[in-house]
Amino acid sequence: MTKRQPILCVVGPTGVGKSEQSIEIALRYGGEVVSADSMQIYRGMDIGTAKLQPSEMRGVPHHLLDIADPAEKFTVAEWKRQADQVIGEICARGRLPVVCGGTGLYIRALLDDLDFSQTPEDQTLRARLERRAKQEGVRALYDELCARDPERAARIHPNDRKRIVRALEVTIARGTAMSADYEWAPRQGRYDALVIGITMPREALYQRIDRRVEQMWRLGLVDEVKRLLECGVPVDGTAMQAIGYKEVVAYLSGAVSEEEAIRIIQQNTRRFAKRQWSWFRRDPRVRWFAKGPDGQFPADEIARLWTCVEAFLQDIGWSTANRSSTCRMESES
């Protein structure tokens, strides 16, 4: 029997500090970070996706950032293909893959080795649904999705046209609910995985989110969106439907004021964090560790996290020789 490759996943809601903790793990155990963020894959989308600057990576190699043009279509199937390849290369170097991100389907694709070849794409049906969304309104399609697949509808915002259309497309084309693919009983995937979930008091996280949105605005989010539009990124494309970007487009068109745009981004980001919590809470494989209201782990909690990681690495026979390689690289940089 072939030995499964190890991965350590760090998940949780946006703004909770997944990137920083992933770097700490990589530094301690000789790892490389694999991004599992469906918007950080796009080049030129840096401020609004809170993409780390090279100096913030502390010498740790990061993968699957800036791998797609924001004007192109990029599927979860393509991300998984590239992630599997990158993880294999990291393991071949004797390093630990640390998968970091809040895109639940990306994480699940790795953990359960999901096969997307059976997920139909019907361009004619999709175009018809898009026309209906324009003529009847997105809410009409959302109501239909609620009737056809209430479980999937509960995980989609009523105004998220792209995901509503896709869910209806799959449900109608396949004849079964899209949520049928979301059975949470753990499956035997191709990886030996430890999944660490980071959480913190909700109100404290919401305050962090609000401050981060204000900082993004100050750092030049509006100019970033202007550059993307000038480069031909379509307003109705997947990239421009990301939180922070679609609201800036509305601001640039004069539909909302600057204050209103910031408020809506904050509100939509908080709602997104809530959906991420709900998604990951459903997965029994996630081992949760709680930060305090100040955004730091209490001493006993961070000790528990490191003990959990040590036990996992010991169970899979991770060589202690691998652990110092990234630390040496950090000290030499």
From TrEMBL:
Region (Interaction with substrate tRNA): 37-40
Any GO MF annotation of the entry: ATP binding
Record key words, sorted: ATP-binding, Magnesium, Nucleotide-binding, Transferase, tRNA processing
SUPFAM superfamilies xref list: P-loop containing nucleoside triphosphate hydrolases (SSF52540)
Top EC class of this enzyme: transferase
UniProt: ATP binding residues: 12-19
Binding site for substrate: 14-19
Cofactor: Mg(2+)
PANTHER family for this protein: TRNA DIMETHYLALLYLTRANSFERASE
Function: Catalyzes the transfer of a dimethylallyl group onto the adenine at position 37 in tRNAs that read codons beginning with uridine, leading to the formation of N6-(dimethylallyl)adenosine (i(6)A).
Family: Belongs to the IPP transferase family.
Subunit architecture: Monomer.
Protein name in UniProt: tRNA dimethylallyltransferase
